[in-house]
Amino acid sequence: MYTRDPIFWRAGAASSLIVMVAILIALTINTIGVISVGGANVPPYTVINQAIGYVDDDSQHEYVPTISGSDPLFGHVYDERQATALIHEGKLVIQSRACLECHSVFGTGAYFAPDLTKSWLDPVWRQMWEPMTQTHTRADAMVAFLMHPDKYPTWTREMPNLHLTRDEAQAVVAYLKWTSSINTNGFPFGFQADPDTPNGKQAAVNR
Amino acid sequence: MTSVRSLYSSQKLALRYFTLSVALFGVMIVFGLVAATQYIHPSFLFPALAFNMVKTMHVDVLILWLLTAFFGSLFWLLPSEFKRDLVGMRAANVVFWLFCATIAAVALTFLFVQTGPGTDKTLWLINQGRKYVEEPRWAAVVVAIGIAVFVYNIIGTAVAAKRVTGITAVIILNMIPLFGLYMIAFPAMTNMALDQFWWWWLVHFWVEATWEVLIGAIVALVLMRVMNASRSVVETWLYIEVALVLATGVLGIGHHYFWMGAPKYWLGIGGFFSALEPLPLLGMVIHAVYDAGEHKMKMTNQPAFYWTMLEAFGNFIGAGVWGFMITLPQINLFAHGTQWTASHGHLAFWGAYGCGVISVIYLAVQEAGGHEQIGGRAWKWAFGLLNTGMYGMGGSLLIAGMAQAFYERAIGGSTFNAYVAAQQTPWFLEGIWMRWVFGLIFTAGYAVLAGNLIAIARRSRVPVAAGTLAVEGAGTR
Q: Residue by residue, what is the 3-state secondary structure of B193-247?
């Protein structure tokens, strides 16, 4: 019987490979366009100059990021070159400090500490860290915490002091702000964005 | 064993690789236990050795003990397929010692330097900070050279021997992506979406494709040796498995692309194909059971056989069933990136690869020592303790993960406060405690396993003996 012939199955393996890899290549080309900076799902780095939100879009039945109005980071408007340099530094800091060996981004990394995909929009910065660090904006609270996490313990698991300079901490904050603007198909579900942002306020009204 | 003959030089090197691999297996367990302890007592070793570096050691050494065991397995098994020694063994020996030195240097760097400033120099010298490929780039270069030499050892031997069997053809073709995909270990793209997109090519296509094919080939060779299974049957099954791995696993990569910025069509494509990914693993189970029945459970090496059987079942359960549980996007939205994923990761790596390489190591100590039979009680204790420990850990993490998915993700909306609240629920805490207890049982199993392997190696009837001859008749039916 032909199914007992190894050659029959070898042909199956070869044809599976050819067909599936061809489809994968086609989808990869399309996906790279969508996820490149400035693509349909990934805003340009200069988005850090704007207000970002995360709302439940009834028409799509999922949570989507929103980008609106001017909301300069650290009181500064970054041009494209400056924003790219800042975000690039943020990524290098995230890698060099092994951040994703405790945290995750897009749910990928480690699970010892919270996911950071939408951490920029987390109300906890205003509720807990701003008073604790005696700062008045979430960006400044994040910088203060990132530079000296040992000074601001929050629960039994503490973040180690990874000796970030102020520039490095600011770069990480910029990175997280940009990350929060990426369309992640509704992940994480039901994230309660900070009502302090223009879109967050709208989200709070909708709820 | 019909006669005594010196080991092939590649088999001598294989024994070194197996020794290194078993030692690394122990190192991985130590860091796993430390990480498990830190979940219960976060102040343990903090801040001298924070969780990020403990976890880095745990997963990097995981990759290394399996990779070195794969090297050892092929160095052990292939001479009888090619009917000759492997070529380039001088370079392969240099690579082995280079690996040892590199592993030691990277471990010291991770333990004592740990991190560095946010510059390219840090990525080259200290830490790349990317999951599974944390090793600094200089070490990744060494690994790439090592894999390149390994590929040369295999392909060069096939050319020199002018002999390619179905199994060796699969292994040879598999070497190309095994090496090519490792190149993704180097870049540090600024755009996290693009970075993760390509990183998954390395992780998914290594772990869920090239490694899966490699272990399928290794299991085929082991079944031929321990049960004298027929070559045409194992080759047929190998092709079926490879066909199904490629048919489901290539586009199955889409289940990693649900939430990282990629287009929505990956939800449907990734969900559908990854839901089918258990099929080849089920094929491996049927294959192993078929061969066991066909040969009326007659075998020359009980531990090698039972570890191979568990490899088939464990792969199906850990990678197949546990993976299926969380792979559909509607569930993955809540389960992704929780301890549920960790539960799947543990059982999948154990079932898919851990059990398989332990099987080959038992085969190697038998053949190297010239033992006609391997049996006794110690291996059963190791088998029982390791599997009780592993499946206990998997179950514990599953409970913790389900609590996390429910309280943090579904109800809490994944904020910082939702995360902390979920980590403090009784279900989560019970799961984390149970994982620690089962981790100790697993550790006890490892101690018995290592002791048993050393005891068998020391009991060798002949110091350097004929593993190779026992199999030369295999597979000719």
A: HHHHHHHHHHHHHHHHHHHHHHHHHHHHHHHHHHCCCCHHHHHHHHHHHHHHHHH
